[in-house]
Structure formats: C-alpha cells, structure tokens
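Handout, section B. The chain below has 226 residues.
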Amino acid sequence: MSTPPIAFGAGPLSRAAALVHTLLTVEALLLLTAAPGFAALLSLGTDPGGMPLAALCLLPLGPALSAAVYALHHRGRDLTDLHPARAYLRGLRLNALPALKLFTPLLAWLTVIAFTLTQFAATGLPGWWAALLGATGVTLLLWGAHALVLTSLFAFRARDTARLAAYFLLRHGRATLAAASLLVLTGALTALLTEALPALLAAPLLLSLLHTSRTVIAETQEDFTV
C-alpha cells in the first residue's frame, strides 16, 4: 500500500519554516511595541537615582510581552495558516490593560528592591536583609512569569490572576523551576554578552515559557474556567 501524500504546508520542514516565520514576526512586533521605552531607556545613565525613570520606560514591555505570548500560543502550525501579526495585534488589544495592571506594581516593587540593594551599604542593615531582598525579587519574577502566561491567555480579573499566579508557584513546582531556569539564562545572557540580547531573543524565550507552562495552562482551563 502506498503512503498517502503529505499535504502542502503540513510536513516537518514546512512546520519548521512556519515556526521561524512566527518567531521572527512576533519578535519584530514586540520590539516595535516596546521601542519608545527602549529608546528613552538608552538616554538614561547608570545612576541608581534614575531607576524610577527606567521603570517608566519599561512599562510598554508588559503589554508587548503579553501580546507576544498570546500570538505564540495561537500560532499556526503550517505554512498555509500563518497570521502571527494578526494574532499579536489581537493579543495587544485584549491584554494591554490587564497586563499593565499586573506589570506596573511588579515593576514598582522590583525597582524598590533593586534601588535598596544598590544603596544597601548606606542603610546599615545586616547582610541577611540583602539576601532576603534578593530572594523576594526572584520570587516576584517567578510570580510574574506565571502571571504573564495567565493574563495573556485568560480573561480573569487582575486580582484573580495575581492569586492564581501565587497559587501555581508551589502547586506546579516544575513549571516554576523551568521559569527560574529561563530567568537564570536571561541573566547570564545579559551579564556575559549584552543587555540587548534577551530582548532580541524574547520570542524564543517566551515560547519556552509557554512550553514549560503547559500544566499551568491545562489546570487553569480545566478548573478555573467555565
């Protein structure tokens, strides 16, 4: 018996090409959305006193990341069904405000922690306070990873998304550890190479986050949606 032919756009090479096209398109749109903030960020110096302004410059990144997660989650798998730009713009329209409601306080807390750590010697506090602040910052980032996935894919109220993200930190330890690995990778890329590299690789990093968050997404769909 002869093997039935594979339809155009459904083969492995076509799926790979579709994935590359989607990643490049989403990456370009993410950078375009966050470009005004990035441009303003470049004009700031390295003085710790400029951290609040730097946080304001990073605010557009929240909606951009959320739209990118939405587009990657709803991506087409073959060359005949590719609409990454349309999916990104839809995600930006749906998720810009919800993402800002979560990203703004997260960024504010991270800014306070970062500023305190840079000025820690002047505070006179014992060294274990620095370790506690660092651990708090890491926990907030991991919470933010879960919150990003949830707010991008589900239409919950901000406070419900915040609670679910906190719940999943321990509920799905593997997903949290995977997010921590991506956080370490991002930090290493920034420290060893260039600060711009994580931004240029945002799309594949977010796709990895989606892949490792499958259990979180599945449980949310099953237990917390109608």
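Note. The chain has a mean pLDDT of 89. Compare this with the example in section A.
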